[in-house]
Amino acid sequence: MATLHYLPPVKPSAIAMGTIFNHAVSLAVLAPVFGDTYNRAQAANSKEEFFKSKEAASAAAAWGTSVVGSAVQSYGVGALINATGTLSYKGAAYLGSLIFMASSAPGVISQVFTERRPMDTVAVGALARVFETVGLSLFLTWWGTRTNPFD
């Protein structure tokens, strides 16, 4: 029988608070999508008509995947903080920077040099990813991630 004892424990409140933090950053990036959907909802003849529309379904899917993704990322960052024994904000910033470099930097470089996207959209996306990695690791270090701090 498979067990999950090899996964580092992370304080549940840290996962919840990290999810809220990370989801707020994601929503700041997705705000134009939700704002446009909200305006369409106001223009619809009835609430029932809007809730049956494709815009409502896509907005709900984006919100749901954002929440789940934020929770998984919060657990992952918290588990790395615990597994590496990071206790200081400096160490958390380094850890978050390494996570950013491993997960987001290749996409940013590709967007700039290969896809030739406008720099303002690349910068907004990169800034959001910095908040989701470095900011999240700093926030979780401040909140505390260890289930038993005396271990």
What are the salient characteristics of this protein?
single chain, 151 residues, mainly alpha, 6 helices, 77% helix, globular
- Major β-sheet annotation: none
Q: What portion of residues is helical?
A: over 70%
Distance between the termini: 27 Å
| Overall strand count | 0
What global shape is seen? globular
Provide a compact summary of the structure:
The chain has 6 helices and no strands. The chain has helices at residues 12-43, 47-51, 54-84, 89-103, 105-113, 119-143.
Give a verbal description of the structure.
The chain is mostly helical. The chain is 77% helix and 0% strand. The chain contains 6 helices and no strands. α1 runs antiparallel to α3, α3 crosses α6 and α5 runs antiparallel to α6 (119-143).
List the helices and strands and how they pair.
Blueprint: H1 12-43, H2 47-51, H3 54-84, H4 89-103, H5 105-113, H6 119-143
Helix pairs in contact: 1-3, 1-6, 3-6, 4-6, 5-6
